[in-house]
Each structure stands twice: as structure tokens, then as C-alpha cells.
Amino acid sequence: MDDPRLTPARPDLAAKYLEGKVKAARFVTGEEFEIAEAIAPLRTGPSADAELATQALKGERITIYDRNHEGFAWGQLNGDGYVGWLPDRALEKPKGAPTHKITSLRTFAFPGPSIKLSPAETLPMGALVMVVREEGPFAVTREGWYLPRMHVDVLDEMAEDFVAVAERFVGTPYLWGGKSSFGIDCSGLLQVSLNAAGTGCPRDSDMQRDGLGRLLGLAEASHLQRGDLIFWSGHVAIVRDAETIVHANAHHMATVIENTRDAIARIKAAGSEVRAIKRLG
């Protein structure tokens, strides 16, 4: 059965590219938009009370297949393929391809060339912008925002160590469906960190377990390396070294560094065994 999280199909409507593969009353081509807000909630239903499935960051592209009369649009993110509902106000027609990305945990977008001005927006790591020129210590975007140049970089510049990126999120509050330093979950932490290092990554931990790396045998799993991934049912942690992991978790309600053995024992006591250990590359 097709995963509904990744399949833009409902009984009444589905994406045109799924015609002949799924049943639906009608099929539509969809229209591409980009995310205009710094962080937009992608929810499981057309309501502000619906569960937060994931978040879309500024500059991401999404194909919209349906819009209701209550301010919500239904579509599929072009990056990781996630399907859901988000507010209409978060969308705008693309106005050119982004040139840069935010590389700091978050940064302020100033309305002019002074850090003493009140910020117009706060952008998270991974947000995409079009820089039209540089002016002193600022990169100026098409919106007229002045971003600190040290907080942005060109799209093809990648972090060398995705684990080091994850470590920068230590202390970030836990948020189910979150993928920014304002709030993040376990799989969001892995996705944002891998993306920063140039590696594509599915959104949810079960997709990551099935789609990333190779499964380690018992002998290899007893000698964990930096960058290995430990999966439980509904949870993932990133190995830092032979003794510690970094992960966003609801027990601490934060992203923390934790002793690996202690974490495994604690999670086992809560009723969940390690499901897989995988190694990238």
C-alpha cells in the first residue's frame, strides 16, 4: 500500500502523475509554489488544530493540488515528498531560484544595513533565499532583507560533518514535527543535519531506517562510529563517538548528548528495543 505521507492521493482527488496507480474521482496536475514564511506548519488536516506532521522552511518548493475556502492548501513538498496541509498565507508564486541558504542555527533579517534595526524576520538553518547583492557585512535578498553574510552561504557549500551540525542543536526544545532550532524532533534533527552536509534524507524515522545506509551486523554494532544511526520504533539517535549519542527526545524535551548505554537501557525500560543500527557511506 502506498504510504499516505508520501502519496498525494485522496478518494476525491489525486496528483496527475498517480493516474492509473491509485483510485480517485479526479486527477490534477498541481501548481508549484514556494514557502514565503520562515517556517510553515505542514499538518495532517486542514485545521490549525490538526497534528503537525513536519515543517516547510522558507524557499522550499511545494506542489499544491487543492485549496479550500478556509485558508488551507494541500500539496507535496518537492524536497522530501511529504504530503499535507499548510496555510495559504505561507505560499507565494516562485520569483526565481534561490541562490543561498542559511547556515547558522537561525539568523535575523534586518530591513536595512544596520544590526540596530528591529529584525523583519528570523530565518532558520536550511531556509533558502535569493541574494541579489552584498553590501558590507550583509547579504541583501530580493525582499530587501539584510542578512549577516557569515550566516549564509551558496547552495553548493556543504558542511563536512553532519554530526557536528546535529551537535549545534543541543538545548533546542523538542517539538513533534519540528525541524528548526525553535523546536525539533528526532528525525527532523537527522534530516536537517544530513541536508546541511549535502545528503538527502527522508522525513520520518521509519523512512530513514528503511532508506539510509547499511544495516550493521552484531560485530560491527559493538564498535559504533561517529555518524552511525541507532533506530528504535519511532525514534532515531546519531552516534557521536564510542560512548555517546546526540538526539532530540521527549524524555528530556530537548536535543541532548547522552551516554549510549544509558539511553538504550532507559528506552528499553520504557518498552522499546533497538530495531536497527545503520552506517552511512
Automatic annotation (TrEMBL):
A GO MF term: cysteine-type peptidase activity
The record ties this protein, via SUPFAM superfamilies, to:
Cysteine proteinases (SSF54001), Prokaryotic SH3-related domain (SSF82057)
Record Pfam families: NLPC_P60, SH3_16
A GO term (biological process) for this protein? Answer: proteolysis
Question: Is the Cell inner membrane keyword given for this protein?
Answer: no
Ordered alphabetically, the record's keywords are: Hydrolase, Protease, Thiol protease
User: Hydrolase: is it a keyword of this entry?
Assistant: yes
Domain NlpC/P60: residue ranges = 156-278
Q: Entry's PANTHER family?
A: NLP_P60 DOMAIN-CONTAINING PROTEIN-RELATED, PEPTIDOGLYCAN DL-ENDOPEPTIDASE CWLO
What family classification does the UniProt entry report for this protein?
A: Belongs to the peptidase C40 family.
Q: What is this protein called?
A: C40 family peptidase
- Tell me which species this is from: Bradyrhizobium sediminis
